[in-house]
Queue: 2 jobs
Job 1
Amino acid sequence: MNQDELKAAVADAAIKEIASQLEKDTVLGIGTGSTANLFIDRLGPLRDRFKGAVASSKASAERLERLGIEVFELNDVGTVPFYIDGADEVNAHLHMIKGGGAALTREKIVAACAKRFICIADGSKYVSQLGNFPLPVEVIPMARSYVARELVVLGAEPVYRQGVVTDNGNQIIDCFEFMIADPVAMEARINAIVGVVTNGLFAARGADVLLLGKEDGVERIALT
Ligand SMILES: O=C[C@H](O)[C@H](O)[C@H](O)COP(=O)(O)O
């Protein structure tokens, strides 16, 4: 199976994971990216079985609405029972690096409001240590150079993601050559730099369930 087929398999598995728990008043939290898109496409035919969704990006909101799924503001919903999203890397503790598509901040906000985070990823995303994928950091534009210097102090090689503006009007710095031994501590350390909105480590609030697409099927890894 190629990577797209593995992503489709985990999107199918995520539908199976939640389908029996959909109620008329259910509002789902929906992530961003190519794997999340496959999940959204599979939600379309189920739209009459739940109330709607909160999206972690404008792109996902538009995709949901095109399928006839109502999109709600997170402030009007409060909590969501599930947040379903992909990842750029995930480890055995279900800590992740996310933000390859620059949606990390809204993703982290919706994930924080979710009772369960279901991560869907093809097998290439599973790693023993996070950091081979460059860690994204969303910054307030005027702080970009300052934050980059602070990231160098932490051992990263920061690179400005030219031309990218987040849904929040901010910029992205990617941290290269930055293997992360303690994701929980590093997430907090980077977030403490003035001018950082958030970083793409999802460790303090990692996933609860990982559906991992492999050649021999979808492996389900659950922490709780
Ligand atoms: O900002 C983007 C998100 O964090 C995505 O969930 C992540 O980059 C994974 O995307 P994909 O499913 O396209 O590999």
Note: The chain has a mean pLDDT of 98.
Job 2
Amino acid sequence: MTLSNLFTNFDLDMETLTKILDYSSDEIFVLDKNKKIIYVNDACKKHYGLNKEDVMGKLSLELVDKGYWFPSIFPDILERKEPITIKQTTVLGAELLTSAVPILNEKKEVELIVTTARELQSYKMLKGKEKDSDQRKEMEDSFTSIITNNKKMKNVLKYARKVAATNSTILILGESGTGKSVLAQYIHENSSRKNGPFLTINCAAIPAELMESELFGYTPGAFTNANRSGKKGMLETVDRGTLFLDEIGDMPLPLQAKMLRVIQDKKFIPIGGTQEKTVDIRIITATNKDLYEMVKNKTFREDLYYRLNVVDITMLPLRERPEDISPLTYHFLYKFNRKYEMNKLISKDCLECLTHYSWQGNVRQLENLIEKLVITSDDVIGIHDLPEGVYRQSQLLIDKTVPTSLNEAIELAKKEMVRASYKLNRSSRRVAKDLQISQTQAVKLIREYCQDLQEN
Ligand SMILES: Nc1ncnc2c1ncn2[C@@H]1O[C@H](COP(=O)(O)OP(=O)(O)OP(=O)(O)O)[C@@H](O)[C@H]1O
């Protein structure tokens, strides 16, 4: 029986079929081979705030570029030509579980892509009611969302997926709060170890004397106050999985030697023990310090540095990817609205301010601010809710005037140079050195141009 027979037999005309599709709570989205949207049902309104008519006939890239949803599923599906499921975040802050299926012609070329998207929240509501809720939870938790609209960051993720497939040690570099830990988790989830454990040790947070026993474990009676039955170390717990050593630059030197052995030979001896243990682990490390400089200063072992740095990945500071600020804001707004059972919105000019701010604390600073704003603001988060420093600095950049005289141009250039140098150096002594001026002059200029930066 053909599809049209079926429609005829059940009296299904086009109008009824459209109605059926529009009543589906899941979004249905069809793309042709030119990536043009040829069909979408009414669910697009609740997911992106767009009418069907605003979507149909458009190139999907056009809407992705405007930030209506991210990441795009289409580059991957066109490359792999097989069904894919990913997590997406929309401009309205909804989190979707999106599955796309390619329909291939006889030459194995993609003819159509049929996509369905469902809000993850509805999975959560089903939790506990269904037998397979554990499986569902697993599915939800198995997606680490790294939100980005930035081309360089997309390449970083592509590269990360590529190296995830190997077993090599990876060093993730980048300023604090740029997402090094989320990237480590993402690499684990995209590796063959994804069903094994993923454990993080923050080398800066654990006292040096405790770190060794945490990592290697100890045998019964290894030292005074030790647990009588001994303790399994993280290296053993994470067998067949991934160990993420955050802030590796803070690992004490004696421990660095022991770690080198684990990486080279996959072997270690627990504290107080005599028997060697073998483990199968992948090690990912991260730091915001200049490890190479530390090697030169002999505070980090050179041999370990080269062992860890087989593959290095650098996370970009948020100020270098302003196109990520809006999607991340919506993502966090959705997250904290859910956490605090609120329904806060954000005004357009407030979002504009956030986009122009320099975010020295990167994504973490943005996340913390949105959490605070969700708790403290009225129904719509407006510019009056922003901390003074964020508002003032962003206004300076928004109001950037085009100079009309040479003197004004010189003044603007001076201001920009001082601000840029201060953002980087954060001290009048270093600004003076950087701009080749006296420290007294630097103090005066910082006071004049960087007050808002000093407050944050
Ligand atoms: N691209 C992203 N998408 C969604 N959330 C992100 C993204 N990047 C970072 N975050 C969130 O921002 C916060 C800070 O990220 P993370 O802890 O990974 O940064 P980090 O670089 O490891 O920081 P540190 O160097 O201080 O350990 C986390 O809550 C993380 O979930």
Note: The pocket of adenosine-5'-triphosphate is lined by residues 145-148, 174, 176-182, 246, 286, 288, 328, 331, 363-364, 367 (CB under 6 Å).
